[in-house]
Amino acid sequence: MPLLRIADAEWQFPYDSSVPWIRRPWFAALFFGVLVFATRYPLRPGQLVTFDDVNFAYSIGHFDIRASQPHPPGYPLFVMELRTLWWLRFRRMETLLFALAVAGSIAALAPVAVAGNRMMGGDSGFCAACLLVLHPVFWHAGITSAVRVQLAVVSMAVAACCWRAWRGHRRWVLWSAVVLGLGAGIRPETGPLLFPLWAACALRARVGWRAGGRALAAMAGAVLVWLAPAMLASGGPVPFVRACLDYLSDQASVSSGLFGAAGRRWQTTFWHTVVWTLCGLPGCGAAAVLAWRRRWGWEFGWERLAFLALWFAPAFAFAILVHVEDPGHALAMLPPLALAAGYLVSRALDLTQAEVSPWWGAIVAAASLAVAWIVDRHSAEFAVLWLPAACLGGGLVLRMGRVKNFGVVPRAQVLLVLLAPAALLDVTMFLHRGWYYRGAAESGWHAAADRIEADLASGLALTSAEHIAKTLAVDDHTIREVRRLAAERPGETVVAWESGPAAWRKIAYYAPELPVAVLDHRRIRAGSPAVVAWWRGNRLERPEQSGAPVRMSVPAGARVIWVLKPGSEFEAAVRGAFAAQAAGPVWYTDLPESSGSRPVGEYEIAW
């Protein structure tokens, strides 16, 4: 009897190699729920982490993307989730967002485990979920960004439904269209990015024009369920679309050369995208080697490869060409990569159950000692570089001199050996402190290599636990100092923010009684005019003022708390013009009772 019987790009063995309880939905939800809670809860933030979180907090009371409640494109179904939990008495916004982040992480992993087994065969889905749960980007977003975690949820849900249509189940063309239309309500750009996958599946299912039209109509109806209310709440279709297009163009100008970003910044975007999508794969080297067979290769099959490519490529192209600024933006691309890696682990697991090296125990012991030496005696950078090489070498050695395995090496042991390197690498990348790197070379290929290394390192830094801790520590210190200084002069204090260490939106949220003057530019892109806008909590008290110079008027005798970018030219100008006094991360000035004015950069401060 042959070792493998290829049928529809799946392999079967002369014995039952499955573990039934691993493939049951309740076990996947329970197992990954425990893992998610155990790895996220100890690092839960005690405050809103980002500017966007504050926007979502305000959107519970009033939805309007023109006022950034929330920011465009609106995320209407996510806001509905927030309001539902608020109605269920989750009245602390920090707890509410963390609960949604945990629930979203579980809601992404369980379908990867269950539907992934059906899509890729064997225990591919379960192995993929094991690889994804500790992926640095997924881990980071599961603590800091409840909305971006749901990119993985929507991506996996749509792909699972589309797979049924891809396999010829025509009724799933309609159901996948509905899921795609509704899923776009979480983050609207997921709709266009997943539409090519749906369209290819519909064509492959060979549905007629009438059935295809019904599916498109159902998709449009599902979109209108969330789009129509979002437009009405934001002033109508024209203001809604204008706000979305302005926001996309402005945000893309930071990261995309097509929208005006500098070439150096576009290179950084490329390498960040590479890090955020591929950093979970190097630990799968041993699985890739053991899953390979000279005669059959990895046996993905063109159908699976085409499906995965249609799933992954549009989102990756959008990230590179248009916009990706935060690690969480890459989450829609992680499920297909995780399933491809999970397939290799599952195939290696099954093939090792059929044939195994007679030196299995000695090789694994030696590999374990080598890994311990790499991790214990060297830096994290060394470990990230050499652990994949060690795993690849171990996999090559394990292919030598194989003999029949009649249950000598238990399946669970093989699974742990294959998953452990990836888990170790993920934990190292996420928990390491000090990823940032600045090269010393100024010209030549050394300088180019230094820039690439700096981009790769900063990409890892932005997905680390250190990034979360530093962000929270800086914001907490800033807000505490602002509140302390304001308490010394109640009713006579204003905050002036210009690229400060903490987002002005967070300061206005946690100190809603204070007027905050935002000294900014009308757009992010270079050359945009300077403006001043006065906020109190979520209310814009004075519209944006522009001019040359822009006038910022404050009461005579008031205390001005300056929240400024450390080391910037504007900070130096403020300190020189007002003899500002330091108070931790902020500065403050007590203005005289007599009237006056002084120029500071593009602004004029008058009292």
Main traits of this protein?
single chain; 607 residues; alpha/beta; 2 domains; 7-stranded mixed beta sheet; 3-stranded mixed beta sheet; 22 helices; 12 strands; 59% helix; disordered N terminus
Quick structural summary:
This protein is α/β, with parallel strands linked by helices and 607 residues long. The chain has helices at residues 25-40, 51-59, 76-87, 93-120, 124-133, 136-144, 146-166, 171-183, 190-204, 209-233, 237-255, 263-278, 285-291, 302-321, 334-354, 360-377, 380-398, 411-431, 444-461, 465-488, 504-510, 569-578, and strands at residues 355-356, 403-404, 493-498, 516-521, 530-536, 539-546, 550-553, 559-564, 581-583, 586-590, 597-600, 603-606.
Structure description:
The chain has 607 residues and is α/β, with parallel strands linked by helices. It has two domains: 20-388, no CATH class; 478-606, no CATH class. It has helices at 25-40, 51-59, 76-87, 93-120, 124-133, 136-144, 146-166, 171-183, 190-204, 209-233, 237-255, 263-278, 285-291, 302-321, 334-354, 360-377, 380-398, 411-431, 444-461, 465-488, 504-510, 569-578, and strands at residues 355-356, 403-404, 493-498, 516-521, 530-536, 539-546, 550-553, 559-564, 581-583, 586-590, 597-600, 603-606. The strands form three sheets. Strands 6-5-4-3-8-10-9 form a seven-stranded mixed beta sheet, with helices on both faces. It has a three-stranded mixed beta sheet with strand order 7-12-11, covered by helices on one side. β11 and β12 form a beta hairpin. α7 (146-166) packs parallel to α9 (190-204), α9 runs antiparallel to α14 (302-321) and α10 packs across α11. Residues 1-18 have low confidence and may be disordered.
